[in-house]
Amino acid sequence: MHNYRKVTDDLYWVGANDRRLALFENIHPLYHGVSYNAYVLLDEKTVLFDTADWAVGRQFIENVTAVLDGRPLDYMVINHVEPDHAASIAEILLRWPDVQIITTPKAVTILKQFGFPIDVNRIEQVNEGDTKCFGAHTVAFVNAPMVHWPEAMVTFDTTNGVLFSADAFGSFRSLDGKLFSDEFDFRGEWIDDARRYLTNIVGKYGPQVQHLLKKAAGLDIRIICPLHGPVWRDPDDIGYILDKYQHWSTYEPEEKGVMIVYGSMYGGTEQAAEILASRLADRGVLNTRLYDVSSTHVSYLISDVFKYSHLVLASVTYNLGIFPPMHNFLMDMKALNVQNRTVAVMENGSWAIRSGTLIRECLGQLKRMRILEDGVTMASSLQKQNLPDMDALADAIAADFRQE
Ligand code: FEO
Fold first, then answer.
1. pLDDT-derived band of residue 117, with 50, 70 and 90 as boundaries?
2. What is the pTM of this model?
3. Hey, how many other C-beta atoms are within 10 angstroms of the C-beta on 219?
4. Which protein residue has the closest C-alpha to ligand 1 atom 3?
5. Which of 15, 123, 127, 212 has its Cβ near the most Cβ atoms within 10 Å?
């Protein structure tokens, strides 16, 4: 049975939710599912904007079929060819063999690489600034390379201000019957999933997101239809998510806060992290989060490192190196271009304590990182003689918080 929702009088959401997928892209854990969004426009011509992951292929096809209600499918606009959106293209071609595909030249290359059975002669290849009229609606195509893959584009309906934004402005989480951001407690319940989605998927490509935001600023956008998560129609909500994207893509922290990430084998380093948090609280620094690097998936750590201004890394030395889960976090930060944070280091080890030096070397490879000179070196566990260093570190962080 079909299950679609109306976006405007002639535009329909025909996507579906997936709560069975454990790991998005086989990397990022999903505890609240994910939606794959696609849209059908009923104009003089009928147009499908993107498809869906094959996991929800049956529901997606039922939705498209129901919305078309016997009309032929004239066009399929492919904004993004990652298989979580493109996997059902072949099924669309089987059911509506006369459909005309519209996409970018780069997308054609990647579609061929994935082995989609597409007759290239039937693809209308479009580039930046090209337009297409479907009747009452005329759309303009805007290249969005690396948001999230190089072939990506977004499509702007110049008639009603709908932006089909591909992965941009998307989010993890299933929609659960709702569709629009104003139908959710987005700022309370959803924002962490939206941040974790964007920062882990596209965090590396901040400059490219900035490029797209600058293009979007020149458009009269009234509704944003992404490929995951809620549709944006409330002007306040659109302003809110644009502001978040501005922060994430320029690597500016959203708020002053201290994220303390510890890697601890037998509790000594963990205890030191807890004591630092207490000393920060004594000094009025209350926006703190502690994470055990061994039991927190790195995608959550990446999400919060994009959120907070300060980061404390506390690590035991392991095989004369950095504790492996902490090293993995550092490598992920580097891969995702994390920058512009204030960082402090605490190190531990029962002999040959080296983790602090090595962490500082890793941080030196990241851009615009301010590494505090204050830090703590402990042998196996925090001792009385370490407390002055602990207090000095807490003082240094608290001093930052007193500044505007
Ligand atoms: Fe949701 Fe880049 O695909």
1. confident
2. 0.96
3. 14
4. 82
5. 15
Residue in the structure block whose two tokens are 């129901």: 66
Which is the closest atom of ligand 1 to the Cα of 228?
1
For ligand 1, the distance from its centroid to the CA atom of residue 399, given in whole angstroms, is: 41
Closest C-alpha to 388, from 371, 372, 373, 375: 375
d(CA 27, CA 336): 14
Distance of alpha carbon 137 from alpha carbon 148, whole angstroms: 26
The minimum-distance atom of ligand 1 relative to the CA of 227 is 1
Provide the 8-state DSSP code for 104.
-
Closest to 118 in 3D by CA, of 128, 127, 107: 107
Q: Which residues, including other chains, have CB under 8 Å from residue 130's CB and lie 6 or more apart?
A: 140, 141
* d(CA 54, ligand 1 centre) in Å: 13
Alpha helix (H) ranges present in 203-234? Answer: 206-217
| Token pair for 119 | 């007759």
- Per-residue pLDDT of 175-202, as tens digits, reads 999 999 999 999 999 999 999 999 999 9
| Burial of 62 per CB tally in 10 Å (0-12, 13-18, 19+) | middle
Ligand 1: centre distance to CA 217 (Å)? 23
What is the distance in A from the centroid of ligand 1 to the CA of 323?
Answer: 32
Amino acid at 327: H
